[in-house]
């Protein structure tokens, strides 16, 4: 009698939209879902800090090849910024580095500071971040006692709306809703708002409400997924996230072998290519007069 363990049937390829709990790293979520889904081929699109909760898009099996493209889509957040206290991580998980009363800050001053941080801006990432400096993560250098100097980079904050202002003694808590491009640090917005107002600031609450087309309404908790692991099929996920191009059988054969198609002027970004029967064939992008394959999914 063979003692070899029977191979588990791999799960279908697709996306899982998780409502990440506070205190978990994104890697913690991936590890848990590997057990729930029964496969090692699991990854996530866009890291969430342990303090943050909300939408984390996870790919299973072949859908892991979508993640790099999904990570570049627009994101939405609900946040609370505390004015009057600065930390070394720009959020509540760090050590307090300075305090300055924010009692004098007016609602009009907050609105002016928020407006200056809206639109196309140059943002310096937090020192405690995963950005690499000379091949090593910035947070590792900082925790080793080094001073890290990070360059500013362009990001787009398409909406930064103050939803409430709460005052208690020397601190002011600003609740806000933010819509922004990939690579934007909400912690850095908190830091920069506090700096502009002369009080310092840091993030005390962060909940991601949307990644591209996937929002909290589609998200499930770890407990819900353990009871019923809902996986959005690849074709449905691509159709929701990217422009769609339907092709003929002849064109499908070309795409299936990584070949090029004439461009149709769809603009920048990935395009999902579907065969005559609705099968997802590939992700492509238009480069000049032709398409270029980003990922091919047919056998």
UniProtKB/TrEMBL annotation:
GO terms for molecular function: RNA binding; tRNA pseudouridine(55) synthase activity. Residues 187-230 form the tRNA pseudouridylate synthase B C-terminal domain. Its EC number is 5.4.99.25. Keywords: Isomerase, tRNA processing. The active site is at residue 49. It holds the Pfam family TruB_C_2. Residues 242-297 form the tRNA pseudouridine synthase II TruB subfamily 2 C-terminal domain. GO terms for biological process: mRNA pseudouridine synthesis; tRNA pseudouridine synthesis. InterPro entries: PsdUridine_synth_cat_dom_sf, PsdUridine_synth_N, PUA-like_sf, PUA_sf, tRNA_psdUridine_synth_fam2_C, tRNA_psdUridine_synth_TruB, TruB_C. It catalyses: uridine(55) in tRNA = pseudouridine(55) in tRNA. It comes from the Bacteria. PANTHER family: PSEUDOURIDYLATE SYNTHASE TRUB1 (PTHR13767:SF2), TRNA-PSEUDOURIDINE SYNTHASE (PTHR13767). Belongs to the pseudouridine synthase TruB family. Type 1 subfamily. Responsible for synthesis of pseudouridine from uracil-55 in the psi GC loop of transfer RNAs. This is tRNA pseudouridine synthase B.
């Amino acid at each position: 009698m063979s003692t070899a363990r029977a191979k588990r049937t791999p799960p279908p390829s697709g996306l899982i939209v998780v409502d990440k709990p506070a205190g978990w790293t994104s890697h913690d979520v991936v590890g848990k879902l590997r057990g729930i889904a029964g496969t090692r081929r699991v990854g996530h699109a866009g890291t969430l800090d342990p303090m943050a909760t909300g939408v984390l898009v996870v790919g299973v099996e072949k859908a892991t090849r979508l993640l790099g493209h999904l990570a570049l889509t627009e994101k939405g957040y609900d946040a609370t910024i505390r004015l009057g206290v600065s930390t070394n991580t720009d959020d509540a998980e760090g050590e307090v580095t300075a305090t300055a009363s924010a009692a004098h800050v007016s609602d009009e001053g907050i609105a002016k500071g928020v407006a200056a941080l809206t639109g196309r801006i140059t943002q310096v990432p937090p020192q405690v971040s995963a950005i690499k400096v000379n091949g090593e993560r910035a947070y590792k250098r900082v925790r080793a006692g080094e001073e890290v100097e990070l360059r500013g980079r362009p990001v787009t904050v398409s909406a930064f709306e103050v939803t409430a202002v709460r005052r208690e003694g020397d601190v002011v808590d600003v609740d806000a809703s933010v819509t922004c491009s990939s690579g934007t640090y909400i912690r850095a917005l908190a830091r920069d708002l506090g700096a502009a107002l002369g009080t310092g600031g840091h993030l005390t609450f962060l909940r991601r409400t949307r990644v591209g087309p996937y929002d909290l309404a589609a998200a499930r908790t770890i407990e819900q997924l353990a009871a019923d692991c809902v996986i959005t099929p690849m074709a449905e996920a691509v159709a929701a996230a990217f422009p769609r191009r339907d092709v003929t059988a002849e064109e499908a054969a070309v795409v299936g072998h990584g070949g090029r198609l004439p461009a149709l002027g769809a603009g920048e970004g990935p395009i999902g290519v579907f065969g005559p029967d609705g099968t997802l064939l590939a992700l492509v992008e238009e480069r000049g007069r032709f398409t270029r394959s980003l990922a091919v999914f047919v056998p």
